[in-house]
Amino acid sequence: MSLDFFKADCQYPSINLVSFGLCDKEDGTKAYPDTSNPDDWIAEVKNENKLDIVFTAIDKCVLQDNDYPNRGRCDGMLTTNTHLYLVELKNQIPPWQTHSINQLKSTIEFLTENHDISSFKKKKVFACNKKREKFVFIDNEENLAMFRSTGFRIDIQAEILII
Questions:
Q1: pTM, whole model, 2 decimals?
Q2: ∠ CA(57), CA(78), CA(82), 5° rounding?
Q3: What is the residue-wise DSSP string for 136-155?
Q4: Cβ-contact 119, 90 below 8 angstroms
Q5: C-alpha of 37 from chain center
Q6: What are phi and psi of 145, to 5 degrees?
Q7: Over the stretch 61-80, which tens digit does the pLDDT of each residue have?
Q8: Rounded Cα–Cα distance for residues 85 and 124 (Å)
């Protein structure tokens, strides 16, 4: 089964605002970007350069719940011409980090099995949780191991900087 992570049906119109949010109602519907209801935001995207950013819903769109039932997938993907950021959105108390990171790693595997992503110069994964601090320290060794094995850096925070 070939997966299209850039399928237009799963993409929302590009957003070039300085700030917007990412939401997941966790009710069986797909994650989505939001520009007007900050109370609903699980993560905030900060886009000081006002780049055109496309949000693609991965869980419940690129991959349905019954696709690859034993493999995780993250909620969404943010892309510009040079950025590719995978995002897992949580609204949970601990433990949640290990599961989120595993979902992100599995999504990287799906993505790289189906697409050449070498044109994206900035690749990162974000595990975001509305119920946790805005920033959680990631061990340098863990971050380096993730980068060496996948080419992606990792952040556990609810603020996504597009730089």
A1: 0.92
A2: 145
A3: E---HHHHHHHHHHHS-EEE
A4: no
A5: 19
A6: -60, -40
A7: 999 988 998 899 999 999 99
A8: 5
